[in-house]
Amino acid sequence: MAIFAQNSNAAPVQPPSPSLAEVPAPPAVNSSANQYSMIGKSIMIKGEIVAADPIYVYGTVEGSINAPAHRVTVGKEGIVKADISAREIVIMGDVCGNLEGTERVEIRNDGSLMGNLATRRIYIEEGAVLSGVIDVHKPSKKEKAEQEDAGVDRKGVVSFPVTEMVEEIA
């Protein structure tokens, strides 16, 4: 270690700051709440994706995507040639494959789906493209009972049987 004479005009010498290894990490409040997986525009994946977090696809995926407890979002620039199975699916880009959304599927106005779709709830914006079969299933009696026991508030929710909606469109 070198010793230097202190100039009266110079500022006092500060001790070196601790290295990153010595600095304690900030406490994690709820780290799992902010976790997600993102496939960027420049990424192309061929194969099977299984996720325990929400997935955002802005690149290209070929194969299958499975996130049973979370949402899969295909961004406007996303291109997916895969079957998707998730709790919720939101499409804003191009998807060619079959969808299984256990709770909800949304196809936004810039989105397109070429494939079959199965879900409990569906939302399709004007301008969206859909080519395939839609299967909207009702919750089973057991699931209805669980929702009632859990106190799920259905006030303000308007539901129409699919046959009535088809008759209105035709």
From TrEMBL:
It comes from the Bacteria. Residues 1-26 are annotated as: Disordered. Residues 1-11 have a biased composition (Polar residues). Belongs to the bactofilin family. PANTHER family: HYPOTHETICAL CYTOSOLIC PROTEIN (PTHR35024), POLYMER-FORMING CYTOSKELETAL PROTEIN (PTHR35024:SF4). This is Polymer-forming cytoskeletal protein. It comes from Telmatobacter sp. DSM 110680.
